[in-house]
């Protein structure tokens, strides 16, 4: 039997739970906790009412359920969505209301998080922070205004679930944008192990047992159980990843069964590339096709030519290519891991590219630091009202990844919350004091990188470096910021940024 909470019921349950969580928290912070705006506050509905709305309702049904996949001849039991997938995105126009009737047919609680959207806080899908977990057999109606056009995606915000098949793109169109291209392909990159070598929960348990520091090894990546030792990359400033994956996928298919994209010679193709991986940065490119990068994390940038581009987990890049004559390899190299995902671009005759085809290495791949925000999305110049320093701490030995030395406990997500006030310009300083890179993600906002850099919601922070970004506090609520390495996040590298009550 399905239990359904309508919006009003869930809001009251949610309010009670948050109060209880605040009281149960450390007594010295209980007062502070209660002075933050909650997801059901009038400030949240007031912010929603101010969003541009078309009046169109896009209604979809989505079910999370156990499935069996054929991955290039390997059978994998996993969890996925009925109603959306890498090749079947959710899609709407900016200003439309997206209504998703979501059912949980998984054996575990779950939620839907809409990655990158500055949406209303009570629809952000973070259990015990913005809503109750959706129990097995339960359902939940997500309903919110699509706030910005661009390439987004969604996944659960519970445990390691996103490293199963639980993800799909959410594409938001701007009907007024004159897209100068003939075709559009959504390209979802993923590292895969679920149901092949282990479940993500088993991997996390293994990682939590701890291991030796695997930096400084120079014999290349070495598998030990489900962990990967010695996977390093100069591009990532050291350790590339912790986890051994037997497969790398483009749109759900591995390199031995590649998807073929068909086009006509000379057509301009917009690629919307999404890294949905759990522990892998990808270097993406198309052989013999320079990329013109036009967007990152949904927001336009000044067009930038590149041979390839690096995406951390959670990042998106849009790029235009002009299709050549023949058959070409669409490659996503698992950075530092010596494997790659593959698809084929075909416009004419010619043999399919070999599985071990490599991207040219004549130029450094593009990263966010090479890009500049398009003028219309640059933040207006103003002084910073508040600076929050988030020191990224922890390591492989104890698997104690944290922010400011504090590991998030999702039973008490407000315990160490950092306060901000509505209307402030906030600087976030991600100071990486670990020996590994982290793709840091902020919910509910899109910050700007320094020096006129791009607007983004997920950024690679290299070891030993500090990345300072700025955003305008214009979306009241309680928002996570965390490492999008799902194992680091789950180990505790998360914190909450919360709007104070006026
Ligand atoms: Cu991390």
From TrEMBL:
Asked whether the keyword Metal-binding is assigned, the reply is yes
GO biological process: any one?
Answer: cell division
- Keyword tRNA processing found: no
Xref: PROSITE patterns: MULTICOPPER_OXIDASE2, PROKAR_LIPOPROTEIN, TAT
Q: Which residues belong to any copy of the Plastocyanin-like domain?
A: 71-176, 248-347, 389-500
Signal peptide annotation = 1-26
Q: What GO annotations for molecular function exist for this entry? A: copper ion binding; oxidoreductase activity
Sorted keywords for this record are: Capsid protein, Cell cycle, Cell division, Copper, Metal-binding, Oxidoreductase, Signal, Virion
Please report a single Pfam family linked to this protein: Cu-oxidase_2
Fetch the PANTHER family from UniProt.
FI03373P-RELATED, MULTI-COPPER OXIDASE
**The protein's name:** Multicopper oxidase with three cupredoxin domains (Includes cell division protein FtsP and spore coat protein CotA)
Recorded source organism is Brevibacterium siliguriense
Source organism phylogeny: Bacteria, Bacillati, Actinomycetota, Actinomycetes, Micrococcales
